[in-house]
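Morning run. Coffee first, then this:
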Amino acid sequence: MKLSVIILNYNVRFFLEQCVLSVQKALEEIDGEIIVIDNNSSDDSCQMMKQLFPNIKLIENKENIGFPKGNNIGVAKAKGEYICILNPDTVVAEDTFQKLLTKSYELSIGIIGCKLIDGTGNFLPESKRGIPTPWVAFTKIFGLYKFSNIFGKYYAQHLTQNQSGKVDILVGAFMMMKRELYNEIGGFDENCFMYSDDIDLSYMVLKKDKYNYYFHETVVIHYKGESTIRDEKYMKRFQEAMQFFYRKHFKKSFVFDFFMWIGMILFSLIKKNQTKDGKRKIDEYVVFSKHSLQLNLNKKETILNDFSQFKNDLNTSIEIIFDTNSFSFKEIIEFMNCIKSKNLTFKNYISNSNYIIGSNNSIERGEIIFIKN
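And here it is:
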């Protein structure tokens, strides 16, 4: 078997369904398998998997054992020469895996990752990163990386988002590598609950004299707000995770602790003064469908059967809805990546379960709209 796709789920039932649908399509021409590990979700994720995807291997954990251990359990059951660690709040293009496998053969690399965008089509800079030394962490916490490439090591700004090349660190939302290498380095370190696990795994690959590679020629959606809610708990766990990484590979960094202490104070003040904008006001829905899909969303609905027919009115707040029965995930992702604009948001219509799904930003949770028949 060529590829095993490992998806660790926790309470994102509808995003998981969409993810699995996209992965199934991407594996149609590949000898591969999907393994879903559920970390004791309280929603009906497992019931959904059994009902809609009865032939997919499902592992049901009795507690939330964290990201590293959950993925290690999945990899232990994998049969593929390669594995792909994939977040459940992602959507892959139909040719994503094939492109990455081909590139991996060519280069004989460690971990290979791809270009990630959020639910509004914006590039996610954590797709490629550098080793977070205390100085690099300082530039990240205080936003210095935005002003000069001198401070740009955290997000590996020696490469643009549209340049492929060697990077130190790849993000755990999407990581592909040989299963043999994963096992050789011991997989994810189970002493880390979350947040530095991907940094640690990437760094362990570097210590094996391999290199990691960012490949921009395929794009994956990552609805980041589903897996990373930026609140005070996130900041505390992030601090603990980075301390774990430094203790394991370097000396304990009092400098980093000081930076994080200041950063947490500033973060708390910003969160305290933030006001919610509320639900985004939509002036018009544009539905791309070749089946004259009527969703009855109580707003103006314009039905288009071809992307070239879309003309963006910058003065109108538009939500674009893609009928996934009419267009491939690759076509949808490419359109989002090219047409992104502040007045546009995007959702996908999943006909099998009759709902619309998507996210308007990478900070907060996404939205599920159930369609009434």
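The two ends are 42 Å apart (CA to CA). Good start to the day.
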